[in-house]
Write a structure and sequence with these properties.
This protein has 14 helices and five strands. It is an alpha/beta fold. It folds into three domains: about 1-105, Glutaredoxin (3-Layer(aba) Sandwich), CATH 3.40.30; about 110-175, Serine Threonine Protein Phosphatase 5, Tetratricopeptide repeat; about 190-318, no CATH class. It has a five-stranded mixed beta sheet, with helices on both faces. Helix 10 runs antiparallel to helix 11, helix 12 (about 235-250) runs antiparallel to helix 13 and helix 12 (about 235-250) packs parallel to helix 14 (about 300-315).
Length: about 325
């Protein structure tokens, strides 16, 4: 539990809530219901073992903060996540009522375990230990089967390491959902391209053979598409998209828009995940105040590539 004033509000509430849910308790020493609720909140903070942080604000002493939150009566509790208020309640509540409120918003213990395992997997990947990273992602998925981020990363790494059968089995539940999520559809497209490159009718072809056949007929879309899938299979993403664009520009509807779908899948696979919320974003204060111009934040080269090819696709479809 932390006592917060206007001086440390930015750090202890706004910045801290970017990585940890913060429950603000607006109270006052003379308030009877506050004296009843306070110990309940403090005990719940202990019981929840770090799933949220309790901060207390004396509304009499910190009237500026109370006014900023529109506090009309106390006790009032506000839950802050990612720098913003997401919910709240007024008046004294029982422990059971507050638990119900918290459980509606806070990640489960299983989700926290999964997130920790996924974070460890990312560190292992950055260190080049792919097998250990794969094991960590498997543990994350076992802890929280509903964690789509862990499932996506696990399947993607399985495909990269050649574990195609396990990747296909792990992917299957997501492909049965309606509507399918684009990220899992993208994995399916990639997996199918690899399988086609290995066992399809063009499995033994070289790129030169594809090019020779295409040179005879620029509208040989079947050969172009097979070449693009081969390029997808070996991770030649930009060359694959260039080949797919050649089809799209000539016939947008060919084979039920299969080239467009493959193109979109590649873009999804190349799109970097959004960074987790942190206490401060480059060019901003923790409270989100812009302090630097747009030029201060440089676009990642891969993000720039994705943006460029999105524009190319848009132009081809118009």
């Amino acid at each position: 539990m932390i006592n917060v004033t206007i001086q440390n509000f930015e750090t202890e509430v706004i910045a801290a809530s970017m990585t940890q849910p913060i429950l603000i308790d607006f109270w006052a020493p003379w308030c009877g219901p506050c004296k009843s609720l306070g110990p309940t909140l403090e005990q719940l903070e202990v019981d929840y073992q770090g799933r949220f942080t309790l901060v207390k604000i004396d509304s009499d002493q910190e009237q500026q903060l109370a006014q900023a939150f529109g506090i009309r009566s106390i006790p009032t509790c506000i839950l802050m996540m990612s720098g913003k208020p997401v919910d709240g309640f007024m008046g004294a509540q029982t422990a059971s009522q507050v638990r119900t409120f918290l459980d509606k918003h806070l990640p489960s213990e299983e989700a926290l375990v999964a997130e920790a395992e996924a974070d460890a997997a990312l560190e292992l990947l950055q260190a080049g230990d792919t097998e250990a990273a794969l094991a960590k992602l498997a543990e994350a998925l076992a802890a929280d089967p509903g964690n789509d981020d862990a499932r996506f990363d696990y399947i993607k790494l399985l495909i990269e390491l050649g574990g195609l059968e396990e990747a296909e089995a792990t992917l299957a539940p997501k492909l049965s959902q309606i509507p399918r999520k684009l990220r899992f559809e993208a994995l399916s497209q990639w997996l199918n391209a690899i399988q086609s490159a290995a066992t399809g009718p063009h499995a033994s072809w070289t790129i030169a053979q594809f090019d020779e056949k295409i040179a005879l007929n620029n509208r040989d879309f079947g050969t172009r598409f097979a070449k693009a899938r081969l390029l997808m299979a070996v991770g030649e993403w930009t060359t694959a998209m260039d080949e797919l664009l050649e089809i799209i520009m000539r016939d947008k509807k060919w084979m039920d828009e299969a080239p467009r779908k493959a193109f979109v899948a590649i873009l999804e696979l190349l799109t970097q995940p959004k960074p987790k919320a942190t206490a401060q974003t480059p060019g901003q204060t923790a409270g989100g105040i812009e302090v630097l111009g747009k030029a201060a934040v440089q676009e990642d080269p891969q993000a720039a590539l994705v943006s460029n090819y999105r524009r190319k696709l848009s132009m081809a479809l118009n």
